[in-house]
Amino acid sequence: MIVEHSAGGRLDAAPDADSLAALTEFLEAPSFSCLGAKSALHQGGLQARRYGELGSRATTRRLASDLNRFAAGHRRQAPGFASYIACFSGPRDLDEVRFEARLWQQLADLHRWDSEQSDWDAGVDRDPQSPHFGFSFGGQAFFVVGLHPEASRLARRFDWPALAFNPHDQFARLRTEGRFSRLREAIRRREVELQGSLNPNLADFGLAPESRQYSGRQVPPGWRCPVSFTEDQTD
């Protein structure tokens, strides 16, 4: 089932959906550094669903349908923070390298499903090595945040594998309104308080490929994204 925020700012989960209940606690914890996700939860802009195994065919089919519906709904809604978080039943024993591989496999599979139905969002590049890259689905650009049990960054360490899809346009709106820098600095202060350092992959949009940040792993300087979203590699 898809769950959305309730009046108390929590996610309503089925009794067996313990990953969704854990997600609520994770987002509401004082140690969680992303203020945008907290705002999405409390403003009613956060949706979440539990799926099967990350990267499986059945998971991709269900996630694609739900994410497409979220993207369409986001474009119709009033401005505000929004996020779609997909929680997966497993695998829960992935180290950072293997989680990164699964994450990109899942995004490539989603794009393959979507490529015949939607154009890539014109506001971002489709080349993961570009400093203007953003993952596009349903014509909507997203900044993707990976969470999993073995994450070295504490703000990314969650009991289940999960992917948070955050619409790009909300960040552009914050920049236009002059609020983005303040939010970014507040998040980074909380990150330092939690772990004593910032993730070295952090960079503002347009300065370095955001693909380096998706998995949360500290990637080496010469890292290249393992998948491509160019037309000739999505057949």
Concise synopsis of the structure shown:
The protein is 36% helix and 15% strand.
SSE topology sketch:
Elements: E1 2-4, H1 18-28, H2 35-43, E2 46-53, H3 57-76, E3 83-90, H4 96-114, E4 135-137, E5 140-147, E6 162-167, H5 168-176, H6 180-195
Parallel strand pairs: 2-3
Antiparallel strand pairs: 1-2, 3-6, 4-5, 5-6
Q: What key phrases describe this protein's structure?
A:
235 residues; alpha+beta; six-stranded mixed β-sheet; disordered N terminus
Question: What would you say this structure looks like, in words?
Answer:
With 235 residues, the chain is α+β, with helices and mostly antiparallel strands. It has one domain (2-228). 36% of the residues lie in helices and 15% in strands. It is built from 6 helices and 6 strands. The chain has a 6-stranded mixed β-sheet with strand order 1-2-3-6-5-4, sandwiched between helices. The protein is globular.
